[in-house]
Amino acid sequence: MTPTPRKTSSGLEENVAGLLTYVLGFVTGVIFLLIEKDNKFVRFHAMQSIVVFGAFFVISLVLNVVPVIGTIVSVLILPPISLIVWIVLMVKAYQGNQYKLPIAGDFSEKQLAKMK
After folding, report:
1. Is a pLDDT exceeding 60 seen at residue 2?
2. How much of the chain, in percent, has pLDDT values that exceed 70?
3. Measured between alpha carbons, how far is 100 from 50 in angstroms, rounded to an integer?
4. What's the chief localization of this chain (predicted)?
């Protein structure tokens, strides 16, 4: 017997809301962090989305400033890595796992603890 997924304050099932926190990178992370006040699962995934994809965004900006090598890394290496991370995080959230990436997951939990 499969347990009934919990609802969030947005009315979505917990796993669906967790997946949606990653859909548009850090943008949907910010939206769900502002909307969801109670559900720890969704808030964790929202914060992890902000941290991970915010970091990818900043790294991309910095690399684009570096001539040749930075641009090559920014265009050829960073997108496939971010795509793989994006897919893995969405799948794990949809499966109901509070999957923590190394460093980013712990940092996200610490930031959420400060927000209480």
Report:
1. no
2. 96
3. 13
4. membrane
Instruction: Single out the residue of 113, 115, 114, 112 nearest to residue 48, CA to CA.
Output: 112
pTM of the model: 0.90
Domain map (residue ranges) of the chain: 14-107
CA distance 36 to 42: 7
Bridge partners of 7, per DSSP, are: 13
In which residue are the tokens 């265009």 written?
Answer: 75
Mention every residue, 6+ apart, whose C-beta is less than 8 A from residue 23.
90
Q: What is the pLDDT of residue 4?
A: 63
Q: Alpha carbon of 19 to those of 22, 87, 96: distances in Å?
A: 6, 10, 9
* Averaged confidence pLDDT in the chain: 93
